[in-house]
């Protein structure tokens, strides 16, 4: 939508559509604040976004291009007496670095290629990722059309060649998915930039439920917790059913584990005695044995060996509290990827009148010199928009506004597309959380999430694997040793049984958790949202959004439940077109919010009616029940024969 | 505030809802009345089908309407051809599914579903099974669904092994489920019977296999499978030792075959000209076809139980016509036939003998302890070891303690007596609510041990003093005992069953809390009763003793009854045979 006619006054202007900003936007809009929510990018969710395969390639491309140093425009004409302008940064390339892409599968899927050819080819690619990128772009163009024609031929071809192929190779001939196929099926991928899971009793889930935003998305259970130990992937038994079914644990270990977990739930004097001492020590003194100790430290508490006991116990408790609410593990994952979540909150904001513009930025913040408060913002089109508060994603804040120049912390990320699960089981639709303890001293502990195709994040026959850790070196340096050990890549040795990596991406992203401590040199009514942090859950983002909201509207409820559509009173006759009396404007990839809202309203109304009906009948029935009983007995006798 | 969503007030909402409700109610009542009147007129048409459907889909617990519906469907069966009937019933099934969504525990819906499934010309059992699976995955304790599922399995002949796999799955997802464990216990004996014969073919549906006769079918499971089951159930109780369902299943696994039905003892006494017969279970001798043959001549005798209280009893007695066996120089051969069970027992009374018996002792019958094979012993030993291991981890878990006691009894009841007693002590402490139960159970085990000891020693003296007995049991096993010592226990009564001690001459029961002597009843040989320091308080309590003709010596010291006025003369009147009375 062309945004020439944006209103010139808002309560809150929000720049950036990451999770924190989106939650804040929904919260403000929900209590009646006029919200303008803009993002410079052409997609929602910023560094929290999920991309299709080609979308990701485009994103990679964008981050390879050196941004042209943009001339700061002169907006002085829009300023009044006693005002000054704080310029905002235009590029967020600073938050992403060390991008490296590797493709380990054949470009085209003509014939089964001998593994050594692949190795050579990709060996080259590893050295020069730029080169790999450019070829990718080409195949994207050419690959698609040829594909369809060829596919049918292949089937026939395969039938003929299978016997000889089987002779050549001992392993079953499973056709490797080619790069062309990945491109062709690219829309089936939803690849998250951030890899997180939702703790089923974490603050995000609580908020989704409380605010009714959960209705905009679907979720899947993480089905199992795995860990990497002694060069083996093992399942971590964490629920009662898991412990019962586990084949790796002896019955005595089972008892010890269950006992430990039950005893953890409440804080005891015995536990307090270990405060300040490492959790590992506490575990050791419980005489649990190596097996259980590993599970408890790395997979359940997910802490390191020197984490203090109180912290280890707290995260163990959190894990246990989350267990069994929705399934056998503590985690949920949103179908279609994590990028859905910020968008759900944006939708909520829009439903309550928030205005959305993508590809639309804020160039500068107008500050009143005397009060040192933000009076207005100047958008990228040169419109001056008055606002009482300005919320901004950290990536837009110029470096000179950051108070302390401590070196930014980074996260190392890797995204793999593989051809098999890391631990095959009866079902090929497992969603696995994998904890990988440091593989050598000084190495970071890696959190890995393996997604199957039913999460709608990858094409059938593939798995999408996300690896995350705190950066020590570059993402490639940190994560490729783990990848090489656990998967089959050209660099790995003797790992016939491991799943093959078809394609992978390494990159570093700024760790948002560093921001809070540092702070910014900005007016008091400008609020900065940090980007994603390295934690598995979403606590930081939700906490930040809530605290920004509380600072601005301390009296108001944060994201109260949305009312039932039937209870909303509409003004006059325009009930069909407007939900809140305020006109909605959005650029939401053609998703018509209002229509959706109307539909939902109708459905809910129907449901309500049905419920009411049932209730009544039950009431009515109670009276008749007495009478019925007699009849029943009589007739049962009749029908029995 | 600007842009804030306006919401209806609660009063407004209430009012609207009330109006809606009234409207709905009117429609409902009208439909109901229409149904009733149609039924009264005997109309079985499609409209009635629709009306009942409308009502039932919102209220599936309306039994009258289900009945009406069945009437209509049965009528339709007579007028439509098979394909149409099939269609009607299929529609009925999908309608029922929607009813089950409204109330998954509606008796009416499930019953109707069973009825429809049974009448469906071409039933689709696979679909029904998957419906049950879905329901059980939502609520694994929905017994309506369990019932229906059993019916489906029976009708469709699902292979037993497949059903076992089904219980595997359910137990895997939540082992705290009695239904699944119990179902397992019914499937395993079919799939892996204990008998040395080859197991019945798995593919055969359970209902078509020959009905196992109660005598030959053991309800037991072969050893190999037992081992697997032990492992499974151990995983459960090590994971959660406080969950009862697994323990109960374990007890079933450890259990032994039901006893064979037989006459366990025939006793004949020349003096009293009386025959006593003991059975392996309580029977009503008057109705089971009991026949007494003396020297080849069937005798017309009157069987009576040892105490008028019992209609069923393991011990029955009869008096022979006077003079039939009283001559000590005669030899007699006696046979008691249990015609109903085609079994009998012989007994010979030789010249010069005043009594005789023929019996299988408790040891012979392996009542309290089976002679275990080496394999079985080692299996039970390792079970005991793992339970001991668990007990070390969970010293206060009552299920574990109780199971250890049972295992010890199966292995060596006498050898483990001391440990057993110690565990009972702990049990009473950790589960004080059930201390009386444990006391009784412990008494039972102590009595069993004493019976074993008595039989090993081949004596007729039963001595069990100072063992904290709270109750008496297995008294049918003491038919031949002449001397019983129960002193220094916590007994409160000598129950009617005590009258089974037909040979008893001396009863020692000092230092108990006995208030009631009901069971000291018509004991023909009883001469001496020692009841020092008990709680007998009235003369009426002593009344049963009057039925024992040979009672000579009675010790009542330390009983409240001794304080009664004129006690001596009253007693002389009540018990004229007593010559030696201690008060």
From TrEMBL, chain A:
Segments for region (Disordered): 107-172, 567-641
Start and end residues of each RAE1/2 domain: 411-533
Any Gene Ontology biological process: intracellular protein transport
GO cellular component annotations of the record: cytosol; nucleus; Rab-protein geranylgeranyltransferase complex
Pfam families hit by this protein: GDI (PF00996), RAE1_2_domI_C (PF22603)
Record has Membrane as a keyword: no
UniProt-listed Gene3D superfamilies: FAD/NAD(P)-binding domain (3.50.50.60), Guanine Nucleotide Dissociation Inhibitor, domain 1 (1.10.405.10), Guanine Nucleotide Dissociation Inhibitor, domain 2 (3.30.519.10)
Keyword entries, A-Z: Cytoplasm, GTPase activation
Source domain of life: Eukaryota
GO molecular function: GDP-dissociation inhibitor activity; GTPase activator activity
Keyword Cytoplasm among UniProt keywords: yes
Places the protein is found: Cytoplasm, Cytosol
InterPro entries the record matches: FAD/NAD-bd_sf, GDP_dissociation_inhibitor, Rab_escort, RAE1_2_domI_C
Bias (Acidic residues): 107-157, 581-641
Record-linked PANTHER family: CHM, RAB ESCORT PROTEIN 1, RAB GDP-DISSOCIATION INHIBITOR
Family as reported in the entry's similarity comment: Belongs to the Rab GDI family.
Role, per record: Substrate-binding subunit (component A) of the Rab geranylgeranyltransferase (GGTase) complex. Binds unprenylated Rab proteins and presents the substrate peptide to the catalytic component B. The component A is thought to be regenerated by transferring its prenylated Rab back to the donor membrane.
Designated name of the protein: Rab proteins geranylgeranyltransferase component A
Source taxonomy: Eukaryota, Metazoa, Chordata, Craniata, Vertebrata
TrEMBL record, chain B:
Pfam families: LRR_9 (PF14580), PPTA (PF01239), RabGGT_insert (PF07711)
GO biological process: prenylation
GO CC annotation: Rab-protein geranylgeranyltransferase complex
Region of interest: Disordered: 194-220
SUPFAM superfamilies documented for this protein: L domain-like, Protein prenylyltransferase, Rab geranylgeranyltransferase alpha-subunit, insert domain
Full protein name: Geranylgeranyl transferase type-2 subunit alpha
InterPro entries (UniProt xref): Leu-rich_rpt (IPR001611), LRR_dom_sf (IPR032675), Prenyl_trans_a (IPR002088), RabGGT_asu_insert-dom_sf (IPR036254), RabGGT_asu_insert-domain (IPR009087)
Keywords recorded for this protein, A-Z: Leucine-rich repeat, Phosphoprotein, Prenyltransferase, Repeat, Transferase
Entry's EC annotation: 2.5.1.60
Function in brief: Catalyzes the transfer of a geranyl-geranyl moiety from geranyl-geranyl pyrophosphate to cysteines occuring in specific C-terminal amino acid sequences.
GO MF, any single term: Rab geranylgeranyltransferase activity
EC primary class: transferase
Family to which the UniProt record says this protein belongs: Belongs to the protein prenyltransferase subunit alpha family.
Residue span, Rab geranylgeranyltransferase alpha subunit insert-domain domain: 263-362
Biased composition range(s): Pro residues: 196-214
